Task: inverse folding
């Protein structure tokens, strides 16, 4: 489990998808432990930097898995409040509405409720993470040539869950006293995608004001 989420109260957590585990004893697991130790120091700028001698694809893969787990857990705390009735469309405020398409089973974007959209999104991400051809866990197996492009799409979509939670459910997060977890997780996410230029600035627009405060 992520360093940031170790304090989440299990009684309030309904995980929407199973957490992705990195095999113990693997190099990626060692990288995850390194990341957790650096995060424990509280220096986010240092924590997101590529460790000396490490492969960029592998570092992005390890962190993408961690962010999926973080968002999975955080969203799981407020699922009772994110319903078809309360959130009939997937949005991040009145100016930003998201329609789902994955390019394979759903080629034409469809309008759906936030919980349905997030279910589609998290299922799709989980399928990518579980695909050894995209996220290889064995030593010596190469990442695909388009790995960075795939990772960018995953992170762009995971950002939308953060944005929805902030815009539609932040009071619920406060009521659960989980705002510190959410803020720290999101700040870590933003520092990471900024470090490697993984999400276009226009995609971050719904959270721009908060992002600017965090980056200062």
Result:
């Amino acid at each position: 489990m992520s360093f940031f989420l170790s304090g989440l109260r299990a009684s309030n957590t309904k995980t929407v998808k199973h957490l992705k585990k990195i095999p113990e004893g693997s190099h990626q697991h060692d990288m995850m432990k390194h990341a957790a130790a650096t995060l424990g120091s509280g220096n986010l700028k240092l924590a997101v930097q590529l460790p000396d001698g490490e492969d960029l694809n592998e570092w992005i893969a390890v962190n993408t898995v961690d962010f999926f787990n973080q968002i999975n857990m955080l969203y799981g705390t407020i699922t009772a409040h994110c319903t078809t009735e309360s959130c009939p469309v997937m949005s991040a405020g009145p100016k930003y509405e998201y329609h789902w398409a994955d390019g394979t089973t759903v080629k034409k974007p469809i309008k759906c409720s936030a919980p349905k959209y997030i279910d589609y999104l998290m299922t799709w991400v989980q399928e990518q993470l579980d695909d050894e051809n995209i996220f290889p866990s064995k030593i010596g197996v190469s990442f695909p040539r388009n790995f960075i492009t795939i990772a960018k799409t995953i992170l762009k979509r995971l950002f939308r869950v953060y944005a929805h939670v902030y815009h539609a459910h932040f009071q619920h997060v406060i009521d659960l006293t989980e705002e510190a977890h959410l803020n720290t997780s999101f700040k870590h996410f933003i520092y990471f995608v900024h470090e490697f230029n993984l999400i276009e600035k226009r995609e971050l627009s719904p959270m721009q004001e908060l992002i600017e405060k965090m980056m200062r």
The radius of gyration is 17 Å. Strands lie at 90-91, 97-98. The chain has one domain: 3-215. Residues 99 and 111 are 5 Å apart (CA to CA).
